[in-house]
Structures are given as structure tokens and as C-alpha cells.
Amino acid sequence: QVQLVESGGGLVQAGGSLRLSCAASGRTFIPYTMGWFRQAPGKEREFVAAISSSASSTYYADSVKGRFTISKDNAKNMVYLQMNSLKPEDTAVYYCRVSAYWGQGTQVTVSS
To answer: What are phi and psi of 43, to 5 degrees?
Structure first.
């Protein structure tokens, strides 16, 4: 049984920071690209960031470039999203994704 469990969401003021974590279990995800997506109320789910299997390459949506950093720890089957300079428009449920698997999401709310 594959499980992805996100944590680290919460309420933060604009300009603040949060660090999201995604714990993967049930199999090894070392060979896979891992990513973060988000979905705001009334909007479609959108790509935020991804990191290659070796962590040598990272990819970001234009809206978060320079503010968010994705990283992973293969030994722990973990992927992280460091979010700095948060804006109210970053408010969304954030999901971890690996291959065809999704986590349940963690709520991030940024107040102005």
C-alpha cells in the first residue's frame, strides 16, 4: 500500500514562511520524480515544483520561482517544499505527488 502524507501546512501572514513535508511509504520512490501541486478554492489543481530522482534537477512554476525551494531525502523517502515570502495568492491545499500517487493534501492559508 503506497501512502503519501503531507504535513507542515498552516496559517501564516503575508511575507512569512512555511516548510511542507511529504512522507512516502509502501515502496521506494528513489527512481521517481517527486512533485508538489496546489489547488485553490474554485480553481484547478496546478503544478508548483518538482525534483528529479537524483535531485540534480528542479522545476518551478513561474509564480513561485525565487520564493519556493523543493528538496528531497532519498534515504528517508521524504520530499520538502520550503516556502518563503508567502503571498495571499499562495493560499491553497498543497498536494504531494509521486508517479500516479497523491497525498491527501495540507492546507496553507496566507493572510494579508
So the answer is: -120, 165
